[in-house]
Amino acid sequence: MKRTARTLLACLLTALLFLAGCAPTPNAAPDPNPSLNPSPSATNTPLPSPTTPPTKTPPPQTSATPTLAPTPDPLSLLPVPPRFEIADDGQRVYFGDAYKQLPEADIMDEIIVPELIIIHTDGQTANLPRDWSTESTYHGLGEWYSVHFAISQYDILQMLPMYPDGVLHGSGAAPQYNDQGEWVTYNNRSIHIEMSGHNFNALIEGWANPEMTEAIEKTTDKTTDLVVSLLWFYHIDPANVFGHYQVGRGKADPGNLYFEQVFLPQLLEKWESFQKSLQP
Question: What is the residue-averaged pLDDT of the chain?
Fold first, then answer.
């Protein structure tokens, strides 16, 4: 009887506790596969991503600095390079093989800036071509004419002072009236060059013998070399190179055929060649 009462009391208490929500929680059934169901507290750690190997940055390409060609020295490239000396009247310039100043009576004491070059022949009719010489030119000028250079097949003789910025006034072309009736002179802006010899047209007309041909050709070669040097040094336009016959009434030297068919073409060819030699 007592046992029955206890059993009933126990059942009653259990029911009351259940109704009150205090019933013991039944144990969960054991997981048959514990390895497949990780604990809720476990955190899935993502797999590390494969590391990309660092890209090697190529060293900067250092472009080789181009080696600039040295700028040519124009003075050393001139066919007839000038020489410089200090004199009482300043720095003088000398071209050619020798210097022999003309007598004072031939000289006008004035420095000019040259704009023209006038080519002459001195008319050494008494001499054979092999004897055409600058010494004969020097003595043949007399007391009324003065030129800056005498040139033969053998040498170049300078006869008047020259300076870096100008030359002494010469008197190789007489003043005259031009076609417009104006009195003009070329001496106050010209360099005068006398070539030793005469009748240079014979080279074109076909009657020059071998001795004369050689004298004219060698003299021409030296003269055109000098003119190229003077053009560059004094900033003269090649178009301002004239034969005496072009600026002097009644003059025929150095011969129109020779000057236009031999002298000028050779001069312009040498001038162009010199200009090209100045390019680096």
Answer: 84
Q: 230, 236 in Cβ contact below 8 A?
A: yes
DSSP characters over 221-246: HHHHHHHHHHHHHTT--GGGEEEHHH
Note whether 219 and 195 are within 8 A (CB).
Answer: yes
Structure tokens at 192: 């005068």
Which residue type, as a one-letter code, is found at position 160? L
CATH number listed for the domain at residues 98-257: 3.40.80.10
Query: How far are the Cα atoms of 108, 239, 256 from residue 50, in angstroms, in the given order?
Result: 99, 82, 95
Residues in CB range of 52: below 8 A, 6 or more apart: none
**pLDDT for 166-184, tens place per residue?**
999 999 998 888 888 889 9
Q: Any idea where the domains of the chain sit in the sequence? A: 98-257
Of the listed ranges 95-104, 178-187, 271-280, the least confidently predicted one is 178-187
The pLDDT > 90 percentage for the chain reads 62
**What pLDDT is stored for residue 178 in this prediction?**
81
* Parallel/antiparallel/unpaired status of strands 149-151 and 111-112: unpaired
Which residues, listed in sequence order, are joined to residue 99 by a DSSP beta bridge?
158
Output the pLDDT for position 208.
97
| DSSP state string for 59-105 | PP--PPPPPPPPPP-HHHHSSS--EEEEETTEEEEE-SSEE-PPPGG
Alpha carbons 24 and 89: distance in angstroms, whole number? 135
